[in-house]
Amino acid sequence: MTLFDKLKIGIETLSGEETQSIGAEFARNLPPDSTVALSGDLGVGKTTFIQGMAVEWKVPDPVTSPSFNLYNIYRGKKRLLVHLDAYRLSHPEQFETLMIEDFLESPYCLAVEWPENVAGWLPIETTWLTLSIIKEDRHRIKLIEPPALKP
Q1: Domain assignment of residue 46, yes or no
Q2: Binning pLDDT at 50, 70 and 90, where does residue 61 land?
Q3: Residue 150 lies inside a defined structural domain of this protein
Q4: Considering the domain boundaries, does residue 98 fall inside one?
Q5: HSE on the CB side for 121, CA within 13 Å?
Q6: Is residue 59 classed exposed, middle or buried when 0-12, 13-18 and 19+ CB atoms within 10 A define those classes?
Q7: Residue 92's pLDDT is what?
Q8: How many CB atoms lie within 10 A of CB 96?
Q9: What element of type H or E holds 75?
């Protein structure tokens, strides 16, 4: 069973390290020039998952939540990682003013936290993951279908 098959069912993790490990494995299997949407409440491990992706792509800088900057750009040895926190964006049009497309150099990954706020902008082939807390010490990562967009 592939990682993506497992993610369709949902993978439980017991620690931040396990979440990062799943993120790294996910990154190994992600095609170049991808967009990944990570949904979930505060504290579920979205940034932790992205940190695992960054480890796989040999990003030398610490990956932190871009809440105040809106996005951070990390140049890894294997891939460019653009990490967007769309929490404070209320309309997809605001996304365009950030000019993120100008920074997307192949091979890249655009990782979007709070993607619901910019769903209308995201490419149709975006990979959607949801992260959740099952119990205090258990988290779940699951591959989901993209949400239906409102007209």
Answers
A1: yes
A2: very high
A3: no
A4: yes
A5: 24
A6: buried
A7: 63
A8: 12
A9: strand 71-75
Total domains present in the chain = 1
Is residue 63 in some structural domain? yes
Are 80 and 104 contacting, i.e. CB atoms less than 8 angstroms apart? Answer: yes
- Helix, strand, coil share (%) of the chain residues, nearest 5: 30, 30, 40
* Cα–Cα dist 23/15, whole Å: 13
Tokens of 102: 């100008």
pLDDT at 25 over 70: yes
Give the Cα separation of 7 and 21 in Å (integer): 13
Segments forming the whole domain that contains residue 99: 3-144
Task: Write down the residue that tokens 């709070």 correspond to.
Answer: 114
Query: In the predicted model, is pLDDT for residue 26 greater than 80?
Result: yes
pLDDT tens digit string along 79-135? 999 999 988 887 666 777 777 777 788 999 999 999 988 888 889 999 999 999 998
